[in-house]
Design a protein that fits this description.
Layout (H helix, E strand, L loop, with lengths): L4 E6 L4 E5 L21 E5 L4 E6 L17
Antiparallel strand pairs: 1-4, 2-3
Amino acid sequence: MSKKNYEVDLEAGKTYYWCTCGLTNNQPFCDGAHKGTGGKSLPFVEPVTQSRYLCGCKKTKTPPYCDGSHDQ
């Protein structure tokens, strides 16, 4: 799991699945690696087409977006 954020291009109206467990090989997005662990992904829809920073450390208080918690 990364201690940083991931800059990604997101499309308006598209549903994305953010990894909450850190097991995915497709950070910051879920690839189903949590299956059988009780973990789950966090679905979200981006309202505007834009670049955003998604959390990699999984400590954010504003999931899936990075809030700088990796620096604390």
